[in-house]
Design goal:
Rossmann fold; six-stranded parallel β-sheet; DNA polymerase, domain 1; two-stranded antiparallel sheet; about 220 residues; alpha/beta
């Protein structure tokens, strides 16, 4: 197939942000007078947007906070204060993006708030690679609703067969499948279930493998 657009998820795909997310979650929980969560517990909560993350954290600690929006504001204020203190770019990401942008348009589709995603990309010196960053608050819907991916395709005038989505989770796979877009799974991310249960064209362990996968799809 020809390839004119590659859409990447952010957290768990391009970057490992779990430590900073967990720090913000635990600061929020401390503000609300309850105990903290382990990093691996928070990691398992990532992927469905800020509201779901906060709800899961509150439920896990049996927090009696009755205003979820207040809790979300607390979380966001802590996260925005230190969004990349411990966040790292996965190995091979920069080289892969550099090679890809010579031949195709690149975009981000994340459930993270768009402004925060943009700040993180800039601080990690990744923003220059992406023509569009679509966040969980950019449209009235978010992943796994396929309309968010369809909207990105419409913006760039790209047919489904000429696009590829790269993500790390069941949410990303469901979004791509429902939108009719081929999907590549990065196994290093935040998936919740077994890798073999996630529908994908290929499951790869590193970005060094992505070029070969794309060549196999397009040649």
């Amino acid at each position: 197939m020809p390839l004119s657009l590659v859409v990447f998820d952010l957290d768990g795909t391009l970057i490992d942000s779990a430590a900073d997310v967990a720090n913000a979650v635990n600061s929020m929980l401390a503000d609300l007078g309850t105990g903290s969560l382990a990093l691996e517990d928070v990691r398992a909560m990532i992927g469905d947007g800020m509201a779901k993350l906060v709800d899961r954290a509150l439920a896990a600690r049996e927090c009696t906070e009755t205003d979820p929006r207040r809790a979300q504001r607390l979380f966001l204020s802590h996260y925005e204060a230190e969004p990349v203190r411990a966040t790292v770019v996965y190995p091979g990401v920069r080289a892969a993006l550099e090679a890809l942008r010579r031949r195709t348009v690149l975009a981000i589709c994340t459930n993270k708030p768009a402004r925060l995603a943009q700040v993180i990309l800039e601080k990690l010196q990744l923003a220059e690679y992406f023509a569009r960053v679509v966040g969980g608050d950019s449209l009235p819907y978010r992943k796994p609703d396929p309309r968010i991916l369809a909207e990105i395709l419409r913006e760039f005038g790209t047919a489904r067969r000429e696009a590829l989505m790269v993500g790390d989770s069941e949410v990303d796979a469901a979004t791509a499948q429902a939108a009719g877009v081929p999907f590549v799974l990065m196994t290093h991310g935040y998936h919740r279930g077994p890798i073999h249960d996630i529908a994908c064209l290929a499951a790869i362990d590193s970005f060094a493998e992505l070029g070969a996968v794309i060549r196999a799809l397009t040649e």
